[in-house]
Write a structure and sequence with these properties.
It is built from seven helices and six strands, in the order αβαβαββαβαβαα. It is α/β, with parallel strands linked by helices. A six-stranded mixed β-sheet has the order 2-1-3-6-4-5, sandwiched between helices. Bound molecules: zinc ion. The site of zinc ion has 5 residues, from loops.
Length: about 230
Protein backbone atom coordinates (compact mmCIF):
# COMPACT_ATOMS: atom_id res chain seq x y z
CA UNK A 1 0.00 0.00 0.00
CA UNK A 2 2.73 2.42 1.07
CA UNK A 3 4.74 1.62 -2.07
CA UNK A 4 1.69 2.41 -4.19
CA UNK A 5 1.24 5.80 -2.51
CA UNK A 6 4.93 6.59 -3.05
CA UNK A 7 4.64 5.61 -6.72
CA UNK A 8 1.54 7.78 -7.17
CA UNK A 9 3.30 10.71 -5.50
CA UNK A 10 6.35 10.27 -7.77
CA UNK A 11 4.11 10.24 -10.87
CA UNK A 12 2.38 13.41 -9.68
CA UNK A 13 5.70 15.18 -9.12
CA UNK A 14 6.89 14.11 -12.58
CA UNK A 15 3.66 15.33 -14.22
CA UNK A 16 4.00 18.67 -12.43
CA UNK A 17 7.60 19.02 -13.63
CA UNK A 18 6.62 18.30 -17.25
CA UNK A 19 3.82 20.89 -17.01
CA UNK A 20 6.13 23.55 -15.56
CA UNK A 21 8.89 22.98 -18.14
CA UNK A 22 6.37 23.11 -21.01
CA UNK A 23 4.91 26.34 -19.68
CA UNK A 24 8.40 27.85 -19.40
CA UNK A 25 9.38 26.82 -22.93
CA UNK A 26 6.10 28.25 -24.31
CA UNK A 27 6.79 31.52 -22.51
CA UNK A 28 10.35 31.64 -23.87
CA UNK A 29 9.12 30.86 -27.40
CA UNK A 30 6.51 33.61 -27.34
CA UNK A 31 9.14 36.04 -26.05
CA UNK A 32 11.41 35.12 -28.92
CA UNK A 33 8.57 35.72 -31.38
CA UNK A 34 7.92 39.09 -29.77
CA UNK A 35 11.57 40.06 -30.08
CA UNK A 36 11.86 38.88 -33.67
CA UNK A 37 11.33 42.25 -35.33
CA UNK A 38 14.75 43.80 -35.31
CA UNK A 39 15.63 47.02 -37.12
CA UNK A 40 19.12 47.95 -38.24
CA UNK A 41 20.16 51.34 -39.59
CA UNK A 42 22.80 51.22 -42.32
CA UNK A 43 24.67 54.45 -42.88
CA UNK A 44 26.81 54.60 -46.02
CA UNK A 45 29.19 57.46 -45.23
CA UNK A 46 29.54 60.60 -47.38
CA UNK A 47 27.75 61.12 -50.73
CA UNK A 48 27.03 63.83 -53.29
CA UNK A 49 29.59 66.62 -53.18
CA UNK A 50 31.40 64.86 -50.31
CA UNK A 51 33.35 61.94 -51.82
CA UNK A 52 35.09 60.94 -48.58
CA UNK A 53 38.56 59.47 -49.08
CA UNK A 54 39.94 59.09 -52.58
CA UNK A 55 41.73 55.82 -53.26
CA UNK A 56 45.23 55.45 -54.70
CA UNK A 57 43.36 53.89 -57.64
CA UNK A 58 40.99 56.91 -57.75
CA UNK A 59 38.03 54.98 -56.37
CA UNK A 60 35.82 57.24 -54.22
CA UNK A 61 34.93 56.22 -50.69
CA UNK A 62 31.27 57.33 -51.03
CA UNK A 63 30.77 54.84 -53.89
CA UNK A 64 32.38 51.90 -52.07
CA UNK A 65 30.38 52.69 -48.92
CA UNK A 66 27.08 52.69 -50.79
CA UNK A 67 27.87 49.52 -52.78
CA UNK A 68 28.69 47.60 -49.61
CA UNK A 69 25.70 49.03 -47.69
CA UNK A 70 23.29 48.00 -50.46
CA UNK A 71 24.67 44.47 -50.39
CA UNK A 72 24.28 44.34 -46.60
CA UNK A 73 20.72 45.65 -46.97
CA UNK A 74 19.85 42.86 -49.43
CA UNK A 75 21.35 40.15 -47.22
CA UNK A 76 19.60 41.44 -44.08
CA UNK A 77 16.24 41.49 -45.88
CA UNK A 78 16.73 37.79 -46.65
CA UNK A 79 17.21 37.26 -42.92
CA UNK A 80 13.90 39.10 -42.31
CA UNK A 81 15.70 41.92 -40.52
CA UNK A 82 14.27 45.41 -41.12
CA UNK A 83 16.71 47.88 -42.61
CA UNK A 84 16.62 51.66 -42.70
CA UNK A 85 19.21 53.28 -44.97
CA UNK A 86 20.38 56.84 -44.29
CA UNK A 87 20.92 57.20 -48.06
CA UNK A 88 20.34 54.99 -51.09
CA UNK A 89 21.70 57.33 -53.74
CA UNK A 90 24.81 59.37 -54.37
CA UNK A 91 23.55 62.33 -52.38
CA UNK A 92 24.29 64.29 -49.27
CA UNK A 93 21.57 64.37 -46.66
CA UNK A 94 19.79 67.65 -46.16
CA UNK A 95 19.84 69.13 -42.69
CA UNK A 96 16.79 70.51 -40.88
CA UNK A 97 17.91 73.95 -42.04
CA UNK A 98 17.30 72.74 -45.61
CA UNK A 99 20.99 73.00 -46.48
CA UNK A 100 23.05 70.15 -47.82
CA UNK A 101 26.21 71.00 -45.92
CA UNK A 102 28.55 68.57 -44.24
CA UNK A 103 27.27 69.63 -40.82
CA UNK A 104 23.61 69.40 -41.93
CA UNK A 105 24.34 65.99 -43.44
CA UNK A 106 25.84 64.63 -40.20
CA UNK A 107 22.99 66.05 -38.12
CA UNK A 108 20.43 64.45 -40.44
CA UNK A 109 22.13 61.04 -40.09
CA UNK A 110 22.18 61.33 -36.30
CA UNK A 111 18.50 62.40 -36.22
CA UNK A 112 17.53 59.45 -38.42
CA UNK A 113 19.29 56.97 -36.14
CA UNK A 114 17.81 58.48 -32.99
CA UNK A 115 14.30 58.54 -34.44
CA UNK A 116 14.47 55.00 -35.84
CA UNK A 117 15.78 53.58 -32.53
CA UNK A 118 17.39 50.53 -34.18
CA UNK A 119 18.93 47.59 -32.31
CA UNK A 120 22.17 48.72 -33.95
CA UNK A 121 23.34 51.40 -36.38
CA UNK A 122 26.21 50.47 -38.67
CA UNK A 123 28.03 53.31 -40.39
CA UNK A 124 30.09 52.13 -43.34
CA UNK A 125 33.33 53.89 -44.25
CA UNK A 126 36.76 53.32 -45.79
CA UNK A 127 40.01 54.27 -44.19
CA UNK A 128 43.15 56.03 -45.41
CA UNK A 129 46.64 56.54 -44.04
CA UNK A 130 49.83 58.25 -45.12
CA UNK A 131 51.74 54.95 -45.06
CA UNK A 132 50.81 52.79 -48.03
CA UNK A 133 51.50 49.51 -46.22
CA UNK A 134 48.76 50.00 -43.61
CA UNK A 135 45.61 47.95 -44.26
CA UNK A 136 42.84 45.88 -42.71
CA UNK A 137 39.26 46.40 -41.53
CA UNK A 138 38.67 48.08 -38.18
CA UNK A 139 35.55 48.85 -36.16
CA UNK A 140 35.04 51.89 -33.91
CA UNK A 141 32.61 52.37 -31.03
CA UNK A 142 31.77 55.15 -28.60
CA UNK A 143 33.95 54.88 -25.48
CA UNK A 144 30.94 55.31 -23.18
CA UNK A 145 28.69 52.71 -24.80
CA UNK A 146 28.82 49.17 -23.40
CA UNK A 147 26.52 47.87 -26.16
CA UNK A 148 28.55 49.72 -28.78
CA UNK A 149 31.66 48.00 -27.49
CA UNK A 150 30.01 44.56 -27.61
CA UNK A 151 28.76 45.19 -31.15
CA UNK A 152 32.17 46.45 -32.30
CA UNK A 153 33.95 43.43 -30.86
CA UNK A 154 31.70 40.86 -32.55
CA UNK A 155 31.84 42.87 -35.79
CA UNK A 156 35.63 43.07 -35.67
CA UNK A 157 35.76 39.29 -35.15
CA UNK A 158 33.47 38.73 -38.16
CA UNK A 159 35.64 40.98 -40.35
CA UNK A 160 38.88 39.22 -39.40
CA UNK A 161 37.59 36.19 -41.32
CA UNK A 162 38.19 38.21 -44.54
CA UNK A 163 41.91 38.48 -44.00
CA UNK A 164 43.95 36.24 -41.71
CA UNK A 165 46.78 38.83 -41.62
CA UNK A 166 44.48 41.39 -40.03
CA UNK A 167 45.02 41.53 -36.26
CA UNK A 168 43.27 44.85 -35.62
CA UNK A 169 41.04 45.20 -32.60
CA UNK A 170 37.79 47.12 -32.15
CA UNK A 171 38.72 50.63 -31.05
CA UNK A 172 37.06 53.05 -28.63
CA UNK A 173 36.56 56.65 -29.72
CA UNK A 174 34.97 59.60 -27.99
CA UNK A 175 35.29 62.34 -30.59
CA UNK A 176 33.42 61.12 -33.70
CA UNK A 177 30.22 63.16 -33.98
CA UNK A 178 28.10 60.22 -35.12
CA UNK A 179 29.21 58.05 -32.19
CA UNK A 180 28.82 60.85 -29.65
CA UNK A 181 25.37 62.02 -30.68
CA UNK A 182 23.54 58.78 -31.37
CA UNK A 183 21.53 57.15 -28.58
CA UNK A 184 21.16 53.59 -29.98
CA UNK A 185 24.35 51.50 -30.12
CA UNK A 186 26.31 52.72 -33.14
CA UNK A 187 29.50 51.42 -34.72
CA UNK A 188 31.66 52.67 -37.56
CA UNK A 189 32.99 49.94 -39.82
CA UNK A 190 36.10 51.00 -41.74
CA UNK A 191 36.16 48.14 -44.25
CA UNK A 192 39.70 48.77 -45.47
CA UNK A 193 42.34 51.32 -46.50
CA UNK A 194 41.94 53.13 -49.80
CA UNK A 195 45.56 54.27 -49.36
CA UNK A 196 46.74 50.67 -49.79
CA UNK A 197 46.94 49.52 -53.43
CA UNK A 198 45.95 45.92 -52.83
CA UNK A 199 43.02 46.81 -50.58
CA UNK A 200 41.84 49.72 -52.73
CA UNK A 201 41.65 47.35 -55.72
CA UNK A 202 39.78 44.76 -53.65
CA UNK A 203 37.35 47.35 -52.31
CA UNK A 204 36.11 48.21 -55.79
CA UNK A 205 35.74 44.53 -56.70
CA UNK A 206 32.11 43.31 -56.62
CA UNK A 207 32.99 39.90 -55.22
CA UNK A 208 35.08 41.37 -52.42
CA UNK A 209 32.32 43.87 -51.65
CA UNK A 210 29.94 40.92 -51.32
CA UNK A 211 32.34 39.11 -48.94
CA UNK A 212 32.58 42.22 -46.78
CA UNK A 213 28.79 42.54 -46.79
CA UNK A 214 28.48 38.90 -45.70
CA UNK A 215 30.96 39.45 -42.86
CA UNK A 216 29.06 42.58 -41.73
CA UNK A 217 25.81 40.59 -41.71
CA UNK A 218 27.50 37.87 -39.63
CA UNK A 219 28.62 40.56 -37.19
CA UNK A 220 25.12 42.06 -36.96
CA UNK A 221 23.54 38.64 -36.41
CA UNK A 222 26.10 37.71 -33.75
CA UNK A 223 25.31 40.96 -31.92
CA UNK A 224 21.51 40.72 -32.02
CA UNK A 225 21.53 37.04 -31.06
CA UNK A 226 23.52 37.84 -27.90
ZN1 LIG B 1 34.50 58.10 -44.36
Amino acid sequence: MRQKIELAAAILVLAALVFVSRTISKYVDSNQVKNEKVTIVLDPGHGGSDPGKIGVNDVEEKTVNLEIAKRVQKLLKKEKIDVVMTREKDTMLTGRDGQATKVGDMKARVAMINETKPALAVSIHQNSYHQEGVKGAQVFYYSHSEDGKKAAEVMQKALLSLNTDNNRKAKANDTYYLLKRTEPPTIIVECGFLSNWEEAELLKDKEYQESIAEAIVEGIKAYIEK
